[in-house]
Specification:
Blueprint lengths: L11 H24 L6 H14 L3 E2 L2 E7 L2 E5 L2 H16 L1 H11 L3 H12 L4 E6 L19 H11 L4 E5 L7 H4 L8 E4 L4 E3 L5 E3 L4 H19 L13 E4 L2 E5 L9 H18 L6 E5 L3 E10 L3 E4 L2 H12 L7 E6 L5 H10 L2 E7 L3 H10 L3 E4 L2 H9 L2
Parallel strand pairs: 4-5, 4-14, 5-6, 14-15, 15-16
Antiparallel strand pairs: 1-2, 2-3, 6-7, 7-8, 9-10, 10-12, 11-12, 12-13
The protein binds magnesium ion.
């Protein structure tokens, strides 16, 4: 199989292509590690070339600069891509034990948090795992499509997945692209996306929560308008930062800012106002859509008719209930583990607690309000500050 050579990255497209190629190499490494086989020597060579290529991109004001198209350039934070490649090289060359020592040296409290996780999960006969991806079991990346899962991460998660009947990764991101950035062996996880409204199950079957035709028609019109709006030169930049423009199943996301504040705050605010008036125009009685603004992303979510609750926006708790029925997670039948890193993941835990006799939680956050919210729901919860800690708990249980 072809390895990866050093490339001079000039355009954003070059960068995306290199990261996509690194997925194939990483997947081979994961397969070998999980099978207990030795690693093809071209794999570390390829990853070293990926690292050198990324590091070789010229930096300006702390950002890597690449060409966008004729005459325009964009400044990017490549921290995730560079760090994870470095860690993968270290993992493959030095072995797991030394790698874990490195993580422990790097993150204060690492050993204590990992021990806490073992205590929480040790002895539990876990039937299922439902976990968010970004910021929870995957380190944060500035862009979804280049957030290629790292080798050590896939090895640790897949090892845990083998121990439970139903391992589910549940993200609010679209299904489109999720498999392309994942390095876990095929069939290791159910991949649920769009907050659980759509799922590629372990057997490769696509499952979707039906959306009533009139609601889908409203969604299609919204997406057409969003596409038209963001084609305008003054708004095009919003498709190129952070989450960009994402059409999900039952939900669309438009970035109005990224974690580096690449957009002038006043411009970001006025773009939000433009989006609000677009949605108000399409849905004057607020029957079809709810808007959620995270400050970075604007989510426009199709409402659902919930029993006894009237119209509400679909959350990840609704996703868990749908998947429990659709995939036969059998939450009612035993213990489960729910993992997340933001307030939007809390409904997953709430849903699991209503159905499972023994739901446990590990959240990754430094936010005290979120910590208290989780602790208020169950005593069987642990909060850790870093995704790598959670991944290590799962991988070394
Ligand atoms: Mg997250």
């Amino acid at each position: 199989m072809a390895g990866i050579d050093y490339v001079e990255l000039n355009t954003l497209k070059d960068f995306y292509a290199l990261m996509a190629a690194s997925r194939e190499v990483r997947a081979r490494a994961v397969a070998a590690v999980l099978a207990g086989e030795s690693i093809d020597p071209d794999i570390p060579t390829s990853l070293a070339n990926v690292l050198a290529s990324l590091e070789g991109v010229p930096e300006e004001g702390g950002r890597k600069r690449l060409a966008l198209d004729r005459g325009r350039t964009i400044g990017l934070d490549m921290g995730y891509e560079i760090d994870e490649t470095r860690k993968d090289l270290f993992y493959l060359e030095e072995g797991e034990e030394t790698f874990l020592e490195m993580l422990s040296d790097y993150h204060p409290g690492f050993d204590e948090f990992v021990a806490g996780g073992r205590e929480l999960l040790g002895g539990a006969d876990l039937r299922c795992l439902v976990t968010d991806r970004d910021g929870t079991v995957n380190n944060y990346c500035a862009r979804y499509l280049t957030s290629i899962q790292s080798v050590y991460n896939a090895v640790f998660l897949s090892r845990f997945a083998r121990k439970v009947e139903s391992p589910v990764i549940l993200t609010s991101a679209p299904l489109d692209g999720l498999v392309a950035i994942s390095v876990n062996p095929e069939g290791a996880f159910h991949y649920a996306a769009s907050k659980g409204r759509e799922c590629l199950d372990r057997a490769g079957r696509l499952r979707r929560l039906a959306i009533p035709p009139e609601k889908q028609a409203a969604m299609d019109r919204l997406n057409e308008e969003l596409a038209r709006l963001t084609e305008r030169p003054e708004y095009e930049k919003f498709t190129l930062i952070g989450s960009g423009l994402q059409f999900k199943f039952g939900q669309s996301t438009v970035a109005r800012q990224d974690i580096n504040t690449s957009i002038d705050p006043a411009e970001s605010e006025s773009f939000l106002a433009v989006l609000e008036s677009l949605v108000a125009g399409l849905d004057p009685d607020a029957r079809n859509f709810r808007m959620e603004d995270t400050g970075l992303d604007v989510e426009i979510i199709l409402t659902v008719e919930a029993e006894g609750e009237g119209l509400k926006d679909f959350d990840k708790g609704d996703g868990v209930k749908f998947l429990d029925d659709e995939l036969g997670l059998n939450l009612a039948g035993g213990a489960c583990l729910v993992c997340g890193d933001t307030g939007s993941d809390v409904p997953m835990l709430e849903a699991a607690l209503t159905r499972s006799p023994d739901a446990r939680a590990i959240f990754v956050t430094r936010n005290n309000d979120l910590r208290e919210r989780v602790a208020g729901l169950t005593g069987s919860a642990l909060v850790v500050p870093e995704p790598d800690m959670l991944v290590t708990i799962l991988g070394t249980l």
